[in-house]
Amino acid sequence: MSVPEAKVLCHIDDIEEGASKGFLENDAGHDLFFVVKRKGELYAWRNACPHVEGAPMAWRKDAYMDAKKVHVTCHAHGALFESKTGLCVQGPCLGKTLEKMPIRIDAKGVVSILLTDIH
Ligand code: FES
Questions:
Q1: 30, 34, 47, 51: which to mutate for ligand 1, most atoms within 8 A of CB?
Q2: What predicted TM-score, i.e. pTM, was given to this entire model?
Q3: Could you say which of 10, 27, 69, 75 has the lowest number of CB atoms within 10 Å?
C-alpha cells in the first residue's frame, strides 16, 4: 500500500499570531482553505461560509480574521467564527460551523495536507 502524497503549505512560523493565510487558489482567485494562528496554534478551515453555500470569505488575499485578530470573519455579511472551533458566534449563520481541513504539522514545524484530503 502506498503512502498518500502530502502537499507542503508553509512553516508554522510563516503565519503570525492572529493572522491568516489562504492556500490552493482557484481560477477565480479564491482559496480552497485557509489557516489561522490563534494562541500559537494553527487551525485550518475551508473557505466556504455556512451562510451562503460555498461563499468565499475574505475581502482580499489572506484576510480571514477580524480587526481584533480574534475571530475568523466572513466579509460578505460580517459573520464571526471562533478560530479554534469554527463555530459562528455572531451573524446570519449563528450556530453553524466552518468545515475543518485536516492539516498536519511535523516535528520541524512544516505544515502540510494530504492530497487525498483536498477536494
Ligand atoms: S456569506 Fe458569509 S456571512 Fe453571508
A1: 51
A2: 0.94
A3: 27
